[in-house]
UniProtKB/TrEMBL annotation:
SMART domains: NADH_4Fe-4S (SM00928). It holds the Pfam family Fer4_15. This is Oxidoreductase. GO terms for molecular function: 4 iron, 4 sulfur cluster binding; metal ion binding; NADH dehydrogenase activity. The lineage of its organism: Bacteria, Bacillati, Actinomycetota, Actinomycetes, Kitasatosporales. One of its GO terms (biological process) is cellular respiration. It comes from Streptomyces ficellus. Residues 501-527 are annotated as: Disordered. Keywords: 4Fe-4S, Flavoprotein, FMN, Iron, Iron-sulfur, Metal-binding. Residues 325-369 form the NADH-ubiquinone oxidoreductase 51kDa subunit iron-sulphur binding domain. The keyword Transmembrane helix does not apply. The keyword Iron-sulfur applies. Its cofactor is FMN; [4Fe-4S] cluster. Belongs to the complex I 51 kDa subunit family.
Length: 527
């Protein structure tokens, strides 16, 4: 089934709209319509802005959930101590195939995001604003929004603003990857941990936060903490943006106040009445069962209490007619292919884990299950970015959530259900051609020729290992670009000529023309 989500799926709202206000009037709020709907926004001092963020308990909406007020104070403190102008970065990188909430906001309400970012930039005294995006549609929309405000990267402007495009990959949205891309490098983690608040873009203190976070800040700055907190729970006030997909009748992005029952949100999208599992928080998140769905509401605290996660706001139910381990296998292969290739846990561990899950599915028995548990545990806490940890969380949650199916595969060779492919994944050829992304090629073996010499596993242990039967086991993941030379070497060195590289479809959709950056401004939008 694997139908990738469109950039802008159906958008719904529960209760009164906040971020989605005006969506019933137009497809995209340009600057003029944005000001009609939301009104002007007055500047706010840094201390008052930090207090506002703390009063509404504003945390990052990209998955990590770090308190925004604390981040703002850290950047201000570093700016004063170092005497260097800070930089504000809007992280609109949404490379996870199950997430579309930020893409919806960037496409339909770009000025709300810019309001929040410019508010923070003015409060901090920043003179540089960078918006990082992953898709054609978001790049077109945000460039048009900057042009409508008369903002560009020209010298001499009081604030210089620019757009940076990153590949549509899981690791591209990690904070250190974003900083590295803005600094002109590849959009992959740098291999060392650095605090952006201390040293980020151009080595300057950098306020980096998710697109929805800045939009929430803009709403709160307009209406005040008291009115903002009238929506949602007292402990987690306001609304959240969710992407609902998986086995649903209507994939959608929905804005809901915190405290709304998860069961209601799933029914809104047409999910199965009794899902056998719901993946919460996206592909770095956790599975919960149908009973947990009935016992939780949309909030970080409530979802965590039943073993779930709000994370990046993706919620994906699967029905009883698909094999949950088969669904997880598809995601596992994709996670393995998303490796940045810079550390062992990512480069070696994730393909090994994906291969281990395949062994379990294909009748490997208890030994295969134990091997999978060991490699998953070995990956945790050892990567240079959050991708290995998030992927290990997905593997561990899968093994814990579907024990009956796991027993059926381990003890009886299968659960008897097909894998329907209900969890969304990108179509082949979606990646940009940069270092360390999947190449679109896969390794294949002609088993009538293979004699089990094992040279291929020695040359390419990241993607090939020797099975218990003495024959190679190949990862289902696409060969990353940075491993392609060694993959070709393994093919050439095979003494039986049994190994080959198979080419998948490589066409990518053409990129639409972008609006000129020096269009006449329609207004400043600063009130």
């Amino acid at each position: 089934m694997n139908a990738p989500l469109p950039d802008v799926p159906e958008v719904r709202v529960v209760g009164l709209p906040q971020l989605t206000q005006g969506f019933d009037l137009v497809e995209r709020l340009d600057l003029q319509m944005h000001l009609k709907v939301h009104g002007p926004l007055e500047p706010m001092g840094g201390e008052r802005l930090a207090q506002l963020a703390e009063e509404i308990s504003l945390t990052g909406r990209g998955g990590a959930g770090f308190p925004f007020g604390r981040k703002l104070r850290a950047v201000a403190k570093a700016t004063i101590r170092r005497g260097v102008r800070p930089v504000v970065v809007v992280n609109g990188s949404e490379g996870e195939p199950a997430c579309r909430k930020d893409t919806v906001l960037l496409n339909r309400a770009p000025h709300l995001i810019l309001d929040g970012a410019l508010l923070a930039a003015e409060a901090l005294g920043a003179r540089t604003l960078v918006v990082v995006v992953t898709r054609n549609s978001t790049e077109v929309s945000i460039r048009a929004a900057l042009a409508e405000r008369g903002l560009s990267d020209r010298r001499g402007q009081r604030l210089r603003a620019r757009v940076v495009r990153t590949p549509e990959r899981m690791v591209s949205g990690e904070a250190s990857s974003v900083i590295r891309a803005v600094n002109g490098g590849p959009a992959i983690p740098p291999g060392r941990r650095e605090r952006a608040a201390e040293s980020g873009v151009g080595n300057a203190p950098t306020l980096l936060s998710n697109a929805e976070t800045f939009a929430q800040l803009a709403i709160a700055a307009r209406v005040g903490a008291g009115r903002y907190s009238q929506h949602g729970l007292d402990s987690e006030p306001g609304t959240v943006m969710l992407t609902i997909s998986g086995q649903v009748a209507r994939p959608m992005v929905v804005e809901v106040p915190t405290g709304v029952p998860m069961r209601y949100v799933l029914q809104l999208a047409g999910a199965p009445q009794t899902p056998q599992g719901v993946l919460t928080g996206g592909y770095h998140g956790n599975w919960i069962d149908s009973m947990a769905v009935d016992n939780c509401v949309i909030s970080k605290q409530s979802m965590a209490a039943v073993g779930g996660a709000l994370g990046a706001g993706a919620i994906l139910p699967i029905g009883p007619d698909t094999c949950p381990l088969g669904e997880a296998q598809r995601v596992a292969n994709w996670l393995a292919a998303e490796t940045a290739g810079q550390c062992g846990p990512c480069r070696l561990g994730l393909p090994a884990a994906a291969g281990g899950l395949s062994d379990v599915l294909n009748g490997g028995g208890p030994a295969a299950l134990e091997a999978l548990r060991e490699v998953t545990q070995a990956v945790k806490g050892r990567g240079v970015c959050k991708h290995p940890d998030g992927s290990a969380r997905f593997f561990s949650s899968t093994l814990s959530a579907f024990t009956d199916d796991l027993a059926a595969h381990v003890l009886h060779g299968g659960c008897g259900r097909p894998t329907l492919g209900t969890l969304p994944l990108p179509e082949p050829g979606y990646q940009e051609a940069v270092e360390s992304i999947p190449s679109g090629e896969k390794l294949a073996v002609d088993w009538t020729l293979c004699k089990g010499h094992g040279l291929c596993a020695d040359i390419l242990p990241e993607l090939i290992r020797m099975g218990r039967d003495g024959y190679p086991v190949l990862s289902e993941a696409s060969v990353p670009t940075h491993l392609r030379d060694r993959a070709q070497l393994a093919v050439r060195r095979c003494p039986e000529l049994a190994l080959r590289l198979e080419q998948g479809p490589q066409e990518r959709p053409s990129r639409p023309a972008l609006p000129s950056a020096d269009r006449k401004a329609l207004g400043s939008g600063r009130g």
